[in-house]
Amino acid sequence: MSWKVGCCGLVLLVIGVMAQKLPTRDEGLFQMQIRDNSQFHDSSVMPDGAEVSGYLFRDTPKRYYFVVEEDNTPLLVTVTPCDAPLEWRLTLQELPEDRSGEGSGEPEPLEEQKQQITVNEGTELFTYKGNDVESFISTSSPSGLYQLEIISTEKDSNFKIYSTTTPESDQPYPELPYDPRVDVTTLGRTTVTLAWKPTPTGSLMGQPIHYCVVINKEHNFKSLCAAEAKMNLDDAFMVVPKPGLDFSPFDFAHFGFVPSENDFNKDRSLYTNRALSNKISRGYIPKPKVADIQKICIGNKNIFTVTDLKPDTQYYFDVFAMNTGTNMSTAYVGTFARTKEEPKQKTLELKDGKVTDVFIKRKGSKFLRFAPVSSHQRVTLFVHACLDAVQVQVRRDGKLVLSQNVEGVRQFQLRGKPKAKYLIRLRGSRKGASTLKVLASTRAGGKQPFPALPEDTRIKAFDKLRTCSSVTVAWLGTQERNKYCIYKREVSESYSEEHRRREQNQCAGPESRRKSEKVLCKYFFSANLQKAVTTEIITGLETGKSYLLDVYVVGHSGHSVKYQSKLVKTRKYC
Fold it and tell me: From which residue to which does the signal peptide run (predicted)?
């Protein structure tokens, strides 16, 4: 089949089909046909003015043909490698002088056409090897038979080709600006802002243009086709072109069909001769791992901020201008950048037997280091989480020895080692900031710095014992004799349990309270835990008022822990 374009036509010719002269191209029909990819799939036709996608098996060349009928015809041929470097060569064969007459329909014998291609090497016009998007362009090319031969020597690969005899008027690829570089304008720990100059194809020529940004951690891409081939590696893995003259049964292995062991030992030349005498059994080949790559199309904006990146990581950024009318794209000169590091955590040194106050931001972390001076058999670690629960991790000389969530006061016993060093990581709550008190000690025995607590640290109020001026409350104790102090504070009618929860700080001791809020302090304990409970009547309250009650238990070293606050209300009528 051959197609003619205007007065300077590009005639398309497929080897294996009789060549003949056809009338001028029907533009409407042509536009409909080029939108149908099946028209050109695995075909040796190079259509005039349309981009064609193709597939190559490794070391198996493909050839495309077309005829330029008249001298001095402009010609542009562009080859876009997708996922492997390609070698391609463009050659010119002169048309035979004894061609069939105009429109006579007398076909040239097929064997003679093949002989002209295979015997006569023709004139080499252009060769290229690499993975760049490369073009051959001529403002005045001679008439003749043109052959484009493409081969991939590294691996099976996708590619695109485009040819036209009217390059000035077609301009399917967006034009790059005078400065085609992508610039990094802002760099953060998890964000990078990119900017580039707009393509004249959109701003001056009014063509429908939008931009796509590709982000990955490996390298820059020279075409959108290459980036998409990387992204669609899983899907492309099982895409099989229709078998044709250049199809080799050996390549069935690429698509998950593995020849038997004996077959692999046979010479590959058997397949080159198109002979398939071996049995082929279906097997499983693991899919290749897809690189961490993302494509984001952003419309016609030429400034874009990439978010959700990892700190201290190098990324490669590419921008592609795409003509949405032709679905063809042009690559800007990509760039790369390393995101900023996270601020280095300052490590606090713990002193043996000393309490350290620690503040952690919401979702933040803090590191503590404990390096005992003398040899030790064990380390006692106290952690007092003042607000919400925190996660505690301890590593001894790099080995993880403890990982726990802590609420309230917890004590841990860690086995010691001579000259061992301990790294303690505290991870805060998602709800809000965290405050802690931490103590590490190698001293055996002695009194604990923090007071012992019962399992239940709630304050119980007896509703039936409420009066207009008093309330009766109770709380649990332990088998250890400790000092308990109770405080009251009048609150408004609108004060709720949510307010109480937000103000709950177990590390705030009695020293933070006003003297007027103190009710009393007393000591108590019980050898029998079942009887370790005390009650107290709080008097001197006003009628119909709300009060917040707090109980503090004070340890021997002066450190205190607050029980859960209790909201109570006196009766209005008595």
Answer: 1-19
